[in-house]
Amino acid sequence: MCALKAVVVPVTPFRQNCTILFNDESGTGTVIDPGGDVPMILAAISRHGIKVEQILLTHGHVDHAAGADLLREQLNDSRAEGSTPVPIVGPDRRDAFLLQGLAAQATQFGIEGARDVEPDRWLAEGDRVAIAGFDFDVLHCPGHTPGHLVFVAPQLHFAILGDVLFKGSVGRTDFPYGNTRALLDSIAEKILPLGDDIAFICGHGPGSTIGAERQGNPFLRG
Fold first, then answer.
1. Residues near 209 by beta carbon (within 8 Å), at least 6 away in sequence
2. Angle at 89 between CA 84 and CA 95, to 5 degrees
3. pLDDT higher than 70, residue 131
4. Whole-prediction pTM value?
5. How many Å apart are CA 31 and CA 34, to the nearest integer?
6. CB under 8 Å to 172, separation ≥6 — which residues?
7. Of 22, 81, 133, 210, which has the fewest beta carbons less than 10 angstroms from its beta carbon?
8. In the predicted structure, residue 222 carries a pLDDT above the cut 70
9. 4-216 sits in which CATH class?
């Protein structure tokens, strides 16, 4: 049985899936897309006894990233002196303008405690990240935002897709920087070729498999 486990904490008025992936044997884990409601995220971390190694961002939207800086601060404040700090990793640098405007965005949507954030490390297509002892490939999938990334563990038949592909839908592109063609190309050229047996957690709503979406997602027909 795979030691990788997932806890999903819906956060913010957008009910964004903040996902905590952790190793059930070692207790180490990664928090992905902490958009807000940091006390709820910390409670889930504590409840499962997870030692957070990093905070990972798929993209720079307020509901995915606005709680990252506060979470980093609170996790590091609780660490023993001399412990390795918890870094924020990702997304692609092309989302920097969104991360620099998080606090301003949050005021429009009633998200409290939001902070602008500077990642400790940017990611790019072709990188790999270790999550709870498992290697995940980094794919750049623009369209929803210019710097959107997804994280794929082929050996586990599992992926984190953020706001690229949902059960029965795809990410919004009705932003000044959105690009519908780029989003659909990202799905066609990078997501679908991963294989029908890849299960995924997305940024909102229930997860699915690539095979189920290939067959039944109305946005992928044609």
1. 196, 197, 198, 199, 200
2. 155
3. yes
4. 0.97
5. 7
6. 144, 163, 178
7. 81
8. no
9. alpha beta
